[in-house]
Amino acid sequence: MNLLSDWRERVRGLLFKRRTERELETELRFHVEQETAHRIREGADPAEARRAAFLAFGGVEQFKEEVRDARGTRGFEELLSDIRYAVRNLGKHPVFTAAAILVLGLGLGASTTVFAVVDAVLLAKLPHPEADRLVRIYQQNPSNRWAISTVDAQAIVAQQQSFEAVGVFRAVPSGISGPNGPEQLLVGRATAGFFDALRAPVAVGRPIRTSDETPGAPAVALITDAMARQRWGDPARAIGQSITVDGISLEIIGVFPPATRELAGVRAELWTALQLETQPRRGPFWLRVVGRLKPGATLESATRDLAGISERIFPLWATGFRDQTAKLTPVPLRTTIVGNAGPQVNLFAAAVGLVLLVAIANVATLMLVRASGRAQEFGVRLALGAGKARLARLLVTDGVILTLAAGLFGSMVAIAGIRLVGEHVTDLPRVHHVALDGRALAFLLIATLASGLAVSGPAVIAALTGRAGASLRIDTRRTGSDRRTGALRSALVVAEFALALPLLVGAGLLLQSLMELRRVDPGFDPEGVVTATMALPVSRYGDYLAVQTFWRQLEQRAREVPGLSAAGMTLSLPPDESDETNNFDLLDKPVPPGGAEPTAPWSGVTPGYFAALGVPLIEGRMFTPADSGGALPVVLVSAAWANRYYPEGGAVGKQMISGGCTSCPPTTVIGIVGDVKYQGLAGNADAVYQPLVQGMARRMHLVARTSGHPAEVLRGIREAARGLDAELPVATATLSDRLGNSLAAPRRWTAVLIGFAVTAATLAALGIFGLISYTVRQERRSIGIRLALGAAPDTMTALIVRRGLRHASIGIVIGLGLTLLEERWLASLLYGVRATDPPTVVAVALGLFGVAALACWLPGRQAARVDAREALTE
Known about the structure:
This protein is an alpha+beta fold. Strands 1, 2, 3, 4, 5, 6, 7, 8, 9, 10, 11 and 12 form a twelve-stranded mixed β-sheet that branches. Strand 4 (about 165-180) and strand 5 (about 180-190) form a beta hairpin. Helix 13 (about 340-375) runs parallel beside helix 16 (about 440-465) and helix 17 crosses helix 25 (about 795-820). The radius of gyration is 38 Å and the shape is globular.
């Protein structure tokens, strides 16, 4: 309590300074009058008594200082004085101040933006209570991990002992009746256990119950608060309303709280009950499962529990699923949501961190130069009794005030940066959570204060260990030539080059990787190819015949659209949308019993698909109408698939068991077609195609090659689809856009790193330019003497350039060592180039050396033009 009162008194003394001064004067007057009266009583002359009383208290100012010390406000007043002095001093050098605020502000703003991204994507807790207890369950063998089947999900729910709640879910784009007609939105479908596991509350209405999961039960839905307010104005009014999804009318039974925007990483506006039918075989593997561990249960115990379930159900379905190495495996939910975003975000963070360090080193160099110029001022202060701690505090105050202004500018940069991330980095998980919140602001404040200490640190060292107080001579030509000060400036410049090189190497490697990706042949010519994606609602297309009829009629009508030269249907779209990955077992090269069967992207297509993409037939034959649903199963394979499994040739005519269905007729390879990428441009080109009549689905893609304007053809396709079903949403795109989108992420990260690298290299060049320019100014007299004694101007330029390049060379050598540390971040982001590619590293190092040479040559030319007579008379 006494401590609190003491601090309150100090703050009051600062805030009400004039009142405090009056109180001091009143107190002084009281004590002086008391002392004067005492002396008069002892017989002293009144005037002499008053003078003696003042002397007894050390004079007015000394008395005030003593009272200030007693009250503890002196240190605060000195700090305020230092702040005012620092602000005035920075105002006297507007160019330096503006440059430092710009450089540091950009670094701090970018760092805060990256922290907000890292915090939202990698650090922040999931929006579920006790989220560390949540896991996602997969099927996993030694080489792969995939979703689970209905059989697996039902076995987990019935037999597990490690979870207090387990739920099954999936999310697919679906057609929804909207105020302006049909629209396509992401819709989640889940069991009641899913919401129980996540502990997802319902603000209005009731949650989905187990009875809602029974096949044939009334269709119900939960919606977000945002959807309820958008459509009905009030969440309470949404209860009991109907909404049509894929042609099925759903009754809205509940509304989530406003804070519930995503569940298990899925950002869907509507969730409906998932009703699972009994399956005749182990596959397909299409579901996701989330579980909440029981108190006391661990990931290891859950792994053993699920492995036991795998062993118990394997014999029941061994004829259709023969991979005995595959086990049901729990993975922390956070890990599954973040996915492979970690290396990208970490690379981004490391790049920004390096740029901030370069910026700090650059500004620290400028602060050090300014401190060297203030040596005489520091000498005067020391001579008048100021301690070294007082000088240090003055310099630190300068740095902190400067960085606080930079931090304010950085907050505006962060706001703009976070907005850009939200608009353009949509492929990162949880990116919609990125915000300039309290944690980000706290990071900005800490980074700002730390930067203030860092930029003023070298200046403090130079002021306290150099020549600051050694002399009060007016001749200050050697003020900045102290060896320690020069070494500090050189070390900072070396650090800038050492930090800039890894950024430039990383940017060069990513650029080379992007060029390699752009050179990858996707297997088709995207120019003039358009796509239209549709999903048929089960309410209007309840049987397979209705589905088959619609797609056949759509393909037929599409071929009649003017400007369309070829069209076909497919379940998958290149370059990175594979509908299904299927397992298979070659009859002439069978997998050992219990072993993991190979897999490949597996897609159903119509014969026109290959013509639309321009994929050639290499060997064998194409599909014909005779390959109907009642015929023996046949497939076409890509050249990459054929070369992988039959490098010696002869793939045509080979047979396999597909999907683990040993009771089904063997599938025969009837032809080999050109390679098409379905697993991204960096993935392999393995692919297997089956005739679409053997497996039409409700959601499919129409692919068409145009000879006219793509927009006109797309309009014609939409009209053809509406002619068959006016309520069907149609999503259209060009294949060129899809191909460009597949390169969006590597192109974006490359551009970001190049921007940071160029910034760092520019700052390093400015740093060495400033150092050499300052050296030339300080040594102007000695340069004049050399020129007067006959030294050639070019020789003087070469001498200055060599001095600068010595610093740059040391920094580049250190930077080469640092490039080895970034290998683990870059390796997963590169394609066709190693993370330590020697030509790239050497080229970047030579380029940075050339930049340093240019930055040193400019002040070197200044040295060569020094007028010897003027320099000697200075």
